[in-house]
User: Which sequence fits this backbone?
């Protein structure tokens, strides 16, 4: 009995020490992350993913990112200042938005939208699109975001049959959930699935997360099956008019991080 008690105490102390190390790790959780409700193993894997993607400091040092979401729209994100440009690729709509204060401007159908109710509608719509499209690109950096609860669901092969560690993300202020498959050797996300409700057993979609490449100091992935992300660029600098002028320009002429 004493031996069993010592083992239990030792395991408890070991996990407490490991949690203390995690709290002082180079990948601290964002304020509001549900550490108490998350699994220790899931947090470990999230930290391994961050390191494999380039590390927390490299992510924070990344300033300007652009990508095309499923051939629908091109986004440019000033991550440091919360500025976003969204160019619809199937019409002339361009939105210039500050996601920190929800203010911005909208050009649509040949003119700038000035009516307050219409402007509010398109700015809110665009912020939701930015939130969605950003998650499709940079989810691996957001596994310990505010409101997230991480669970480890064990070893589970992805659709290609590759053995993986399966994480579940649920959210304090949203009803949905994600499953995220992580390569146990490379520590990179290789697949994800989205469920409309946390109680759902069948996902709305399951797509691969492949084709990683180096962009500056971080890795990003573009292959999502039939929902690919293309034209990924990380810049060392962009002129201010990218976020203030509706005129569309060729972003590839600006200096990119290597």
Assistant:
């Amino acid at each position: 009995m004493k031996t069993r008690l010592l083992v239990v105490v030792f395991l408890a102390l070991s996990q407490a020490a490991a949690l203390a190390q995690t709290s002082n790790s180079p990948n601290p959780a964002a304020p509001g992350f549900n550490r108490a409700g998350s699994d220790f193993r899931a947090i470990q894997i999230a930290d391994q993913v961050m390191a494999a993607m380039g590390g927390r400091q490299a992510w924070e040092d990344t300033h300007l990112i652009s990508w095309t979401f499923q051939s629908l729209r091109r986004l440019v994100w000033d991550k440091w200042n919360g500025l976003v440009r969204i160019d619809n690729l199937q019409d002339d709509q361009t939105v210039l938005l500050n996601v920190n204060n929800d203010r911005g401007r909208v050009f649509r159908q040949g003119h700038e939208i000035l009516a307050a109710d219409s402007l509010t509608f398109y700015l809110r719509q665009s912020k939701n699109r930015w939130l969605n499209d950003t998650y499709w690109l940079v989810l691996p950096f957001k596994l310990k975001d505010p409101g997230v609860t991480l669970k480890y669901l064990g070893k589970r092969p992805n659709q290609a049959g590759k053995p993986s560690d399966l994480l579940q993300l649920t959210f304090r202020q949203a009803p949905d959930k994600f499953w995220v498959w992580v390569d146990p050797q490379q520590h990179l996300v290789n697949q994800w699935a989205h469920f409309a409700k946390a109680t759902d057993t069948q996902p709305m979609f399951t797509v691969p997360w492949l084709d990683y490449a180096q962009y500056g100091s971080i890795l990003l992935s573009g292959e999502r099956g039939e929902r690919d992300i293309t034209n990924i660029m990380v810049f060392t600098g962009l002129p201010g008019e990218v976020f203030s002028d509706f005129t569309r320009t060729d972003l590839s002429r600006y200096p990119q991080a290597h």
